[in-house]
Every structure is written in C-alpha cells, then in structure tokens.
Amino acid sequence: MSPYQPRHGATSLVKQADSAAHPGTADTAGTGGSVDRERAPETSLPTASHPAAPSREAEGCLAVAVRLPVRIVVLLLVLPVRMAWDALVACGRLLNRVLWQPFARAVGTLWRVLVAEPLAWVWRRVLAPVGRGVGVALVWLGKALFVWPWVALWRYVLAPVGRGVVALVRGVGASLGWLGHWLLVVPARWFYRALLTPLGHGIAAVVRAVGAGLGWLGHWLLVVPARWFYRWVLTPLGVALVWLGKALFVWPWVALWRYVLAPVGRGVAAAVRAVGTALAWLGRMLFVVPITALYRFVLTPLGRALAVVAREIGHAVQHAWRAAGHVSRVVFGFLGRMLRWIFVAPVVWVWQHAVRPVGRGVRDNLWRPVAQAVREAGRAVRAAIGAARRSARQTRAEIRRALFGSTPEKERDGLSR
After folding, report:
1. What would the DSSP string read from start to end of 331-358?
2. In Å, how far are 226, 323, 356 from 235, measured between CA atoms?
3. For 38-71, b where at least 16 C-beta lie within 10 A, e where not — what string?
C-alpha cells in the first residue's frame, strides 16, 4: 500500500463522521447500495477520453500541511529572480535589436566590401588565369621532360628490339626442341622399353621370392616363440606385479581414507556447519535485524517524508515561477505603458503633426523645385557644351580644307570624329 494513501481505519472514521453529520445520506446509501454497486464498475474505470482525476484523499496530512507555507516562501524567493530574469531578457532583446544586429550588418557589409569582393575579384581576374596558365605550362613541360621521351624510346627502340628478340628466342627454342627430341627423347624411350623394362620385371620376381622365404623364416623363428613367451611368462609375471603393487600402495591408502580420514572429515564438516550456523544467527541478530528495523521504521518513513517535501517544493517552484511570470508580465507591461505614454507617444505625436508635415512641405515647395531647376540647368549646360564642341569641329574641318584641301570622304570622317 502507498504511504500517501489513508488507512482503512481513518476512512471508516471519516465515513462514520459523515453519516453522523448527514443521517439522510446513510439511509439513501443503505437503500441504493445495490444500485451503486452495480453502477460502480461503469463509473470507476477510467477511459482514454475521461482519465481518472487524482484524488485529494490520496495525499497525506504532511503534504497538505507543508504545501501552503512552502508555496508562499518559494513565491517570495522566486519572484525577484523571475523579474530579474525577465528584465535581463528584455534588455538582451533591446540590445540585440538596437546594437548587435546593426553592428553585425555593418561588419558584414565592411567584410564583403573590403575583403570578400576584392579577394574574389583578385582570384577571378588575376590568380585563376595565372594559375591556369602556369598549370598548362607545367603540364606541357612535364610531358616534354618525362612522358614524351619515354614514349618515343618505347615506341621506336624498345618495342622493335623486343619483338626481334622474341622472334629470335622462338626460333632458337624450336630448333633446340627438335634436336632434343631426336637426340635425347627417342633414344631414352627405346632404352627404357627394350632394356630397363625386362630387367626390372626380372628383379621384381627375384625380390618377391626372397621376400616370401624371409617372411616364412621370420614367422617360425621370431613370431611363434615371442607369442609363447608373452602368453606363458610375461602375462603371469605382470599379474603378480599388479597384485603386489595394489597390496603395497593402493589398499593401505584406501583403508586410511575410508576408516580414518573420511569419518574425521565428516566430523570436522559437521562442527564447521554448526559453528557457521551459530555465527550466522549471531550476525543476523546483531546486524541484519537492527539494520532492517532501522530501514523499515526510521529511514523509510523519513525518506517518504523527504520525498513528500521535495515533491511539494518542486510543485511550489513550478507554481511560483508561473505566478512570478504573470506578476512580472503585469509589472513590466505597466512600466512599458508608462514609458510609451511619457516618451514614445509625445515623440510620435510631434513626428506625425509637426516634423513630417514640415518635411513634406520643404520637400514639395523647396527641394523638388530646386532639384528640377538644377537638372534643367545641367541639361542646358550639357547642350551648350555639345553645341560648342560641334562648332569647334566644323571650324577645324573648314580650316583644314582651306589649308590642305581634303576629299569629301576625309571631310565626312573628320566631321564624324
């Protein structure tokens, strides 16, 4: 049973107190007990859509007594931490938006303009073409120094010489093979067939006859006497020696083990078992039973109480963190509204109703007319300069024609230039 569940005695006392306080409910329970018992399985079983809610009766009195003070103390401790954390988060977001992002964009732009794009241009316009040219030159030089000489040596020197040497070796090998066949193989084959084969057959017949005779002599001179000697001399002597060895070395030790050592060993084992049993009982009574009682009646309740306290502290920290978040949100929301009403709203009103209308008036009534006049003046100056250039060309062409007499083609070329 869980340590946090109430015992049956406390439950029965609570039911008796309820029945005493509300006597009508006892009669209703007595009359409708069968109906409740019949409907109990349908309402008591939790389902996936209606999970069983945790019962307050499963919580012990320690949890109920500790919960409210712990939550109050933890809320008082966590609230400053949560407000400081929210303030740091807001300051971090403001610094990120106001300082870090512009700084990062500026550094990125400077890096791209001053370092990345010049390096890319140098690589694309200088280093890559130079590297490709150097690579092509090095490849051509390597081929000229290391590949083409060896290819020419192989193709025009070594390959023809090798083919000639192979043809010469093949001719010499064929000649030597023909001479060896007729000078060595044919005479050796005739010598083996006409002389060595009959001589070998005769020597084999003589060896077989001599072997049969020696085998018969060995059987009657060695095997039969040795078999008789083993059966009638060595076997009885071996049996006597085995019996003597058992009488001298085996039977005394067997008797010593069976009638002396085994009874003494059994007695010693019985004594050791008795002493071990006594020591085990003594150790159990001196160590195991006290430690078990300490664990069962001291450490287990203390651990359960500490677990309840730790669980309540954890729940209190969670509730306090959420409550402190709501409080921090309200406080900082109020401060944000006050700052917006005090600083931002006047600045926005001034911008919308004073600065922006003035700026638009200056832009429409002063800047745009001045810019249009400057552009018109620039166009007029450029047109005057172009007309002066054209008149100067025509004057030079007239002077050249008057002095040197140029052709119409040259005149057109001069005028076009």
Report:
1. HHHHHHHHHIIIIIHHHHHHIIIIIHHH
2. 12, 107, 137
3. eeeeeeeeeeeeeeeeeeeeebbeebeebbeebb
Of 146, 163, 165, the closest CA to residue 155 belongs to 163
User: Does residue 30 register a pLDDT over 50?
Assistant: no
Among 28, 8, 7, 10, CA closest to 19: 28
Angle in degrees, CA 243, 248, 254, rounded to 5: 95
- Which pLDDT does position 120 carry in this prediction? 92
Global pTM exceeds 0.70: no
Distances (CA, A) of 390 to 246, 351, 378, 397, 415: 147, 53, 18, 11, 9
Q: CA 258, CA 253: separation in Å to the nearest integer? A: 9
Q: What is the rounded distance in angstroms from the CA atom of residue 300 to the CA atom of residue 292?
A: 10
Q: Token digits for 387?
A: 């007309």
Residues with Cβ within 8 Å of 58's Cβ and at least 6 positions away in sequence, in order, are: 2, 4, 5, 6
Quick one: tokens of 28? 């209703």
CA distance 308 to 304: 6
Query: pLDDT digits over 367-380, tens only?
Result: 889 999 999 999 99
For residue 82, the tally of other CB atoms under 10 A from its CB is 20
Q: Phi first, then psi: what are they for 177, rounded to 5°?
A: -65, -40
pLDDT of residue 328: 82
Q: CB within 8 A of 311, min separation 6: which ones?
A: 63
CB neighbour list of residue 317: distance below 8 Å, 6 or more residues apart:
74, 78
The DSSP secondary-structure symbol of 58 reads G
Residue 72's nearest CA partner among 312, 295, 373 is: 312
**Residue among 155, 176, 157 at smallest CA distance from 165:** 157
Contact 320, 79 (CB under 8 A): yes
Rounded Cα distance, 276 and 266, in Å: 15
